[in-house]
Amino acid sequence: MTTTAWHADPLTWGKGARIFEAFLEPTCPYSVRAFNKLDELLNQAGEDKITVKIRLQSQPWHMYSGVLVRCIIAASTLEGGKQTARKVMAAIAAHREEFEFERHAGGPNMDVTPNQIIERLEGYSGVRLKEAFAIPDLDREIKWHCKYARQNGIHVSPTFMIDGLVQPDMSSGDEVRVWVKKALGN
């Protein structure tokens, strides 16, 4: 048996001393709102002052959460690494309801298979995911995200941490300038 070496590119942008971690579930509407603000956070705060890290927070009430988290991590192993993963996350965000169940328990996705979800995501993102999705030990990276969230007491998405401390007063509904002030203190 031949094993192919792979590397999951960390979902990290910026190079500043302040560490801003966002625990996101890809189909959660509040996580999508937060995800869509991360570029502006980097712009306003300055990539030299802040490092933004996306931590994937799979949640079982979002029924295809595990499949989609695996797709994002699989994308990070492909050419382009974190940028390819970001492209996949953006496709999920832009078409969130097509990857979700109605009231978490019904609707058209009840008859959709994981393979159909992956194909749908490939169509929206333009990223070929099936081969990377099938990496036998890709779950080690998925488990890392899960263990990291658990060790930090993260239960809901989005949750934010600054320099390793959970920020319970931060919300996806906050304006980006509020995040910048909280992260940088100015």
TrEMBL record:
InterPro entries: Thioredoxin-like_sf. SUPFAM superfamilies: Thioredoxin-like (SSF52833). Gene3D superfamilies: Glutaredoxin. This is Thioredoxin. It comes from Rhizobium beringeri.
